[in-house]
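Example 3.2
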Amino acid sequence: MRQAYITSLAVSGVKNIKNKIEMKFSNQVKTNFTLEKTNIKAIYGPNGSGKSGIIHAMEIYEKLTKYIDFLSDNINQRYIAHLINNETKKFEICVEFIIFDSETNKVINQYAHEIKLEKLDNDIVIITDDVLKQFKNKNGSIIETEIIYQVKNGIITSNYIHDTVLQKATNLLNKRTFIDIFMGKGPSVLYQASADEHLYKAEKILRDLIRFIFSVRTTTENDDQHWGYVNRYHEQVNKQNGMIEENEELDSPYNEIRLSDHSDRIRVNQLAQYQENVKRLTEFMKLFKPELIKIETIEKQDGETIVIDKLFVYPNHKIHIEFESAGIKKLVTLFEEFNFLMKKRGILFIDELDAKINDVYLIKLIQFFDEYLKGQLVFTTHNVSPMEILKLRKHSIDFMSSKGEITHWIKNGNYSAQNLYRKGLIKNLPFNMEYYDFLGILGDLDDE
């Protein structure tokens, strides 16, 4: 089974991250690769340090590559403009990833995908750069880098894609990534001339990129998914499953049935699968609320779709999910994300994983992933308890300072990451504050 994995991430110009920061997720990539003890990363830092900016950077990448013509919608334009740093007005992201065989642990290909945006007047966002590179690796060292395609200010060049295709794409590339255009039209967009070795290689490489893109999912607090708009795209992609592999379906969110923390809308032919998912959600929620009897659904057909409300049934009462506690609703949302992570061996970025979750539950979840995870989990948190589980892993704890500087935790004798962090002994994170500093600020002191 082919699987994607992020090895490095560099971002700048997102929210309050002004300058470039880089995060490593593995050691040097060699011929053999294993996920063991490298596939979980927790990001720590003070409030306002930019932790959420890292997750939002991946969210921007996901939306620009996975959703068709995303920037053509004014709401989406404003949303992305809001995330781009107001001082630089430029956003950059470079994701390095590998495609490997999860059964043999052999690395198949290694790539870097870079996207740059610029925010113009009136919050108009354009794509200035879109570059896909392939690396050739020997004994952990990159010996050759080849540009598969490069977009600069709307002009695309490539040695692997026919000139006719490049000309057709040129007028679209200020608002759309090339892979977005490719997925919208399918593999046939490459074959404007007779098939040759270059075109065949291009298709194989773009399939690797698509595999990576659909392995990634981001979850942010108060996330606005624009599902009505997004589905217009995924219905088109769903018709072109052959872009990934023969006999393998494209893992499109349009095909997924997601249980939310409010009412759900599904297609009529998805009802049976939805009900099965509700049963599994019930078992998941009973771990946290043993008194839960079942989750009851109320269905109302609306044309070709069904709107479904969920009621949590307890011994003496029922409660609509809208009126459940914030913690229970967070667990419902995480159930879907964790399913994706485990079943699809996905790459999941979560902002504030610990928000609204009991500390004991959080630790049990981290212990579960530490033991069984086959995908890749990256999350921001203020809760220091996961450090005790992750401290023995590689590339699993990063600290971010208020200046946007990253410090990677490296095991050092008997030193505890948790204790050093609390005492302000992590580089660039002094936490120069004492409890008595609040005196005279929070209320007036009585004169004595």
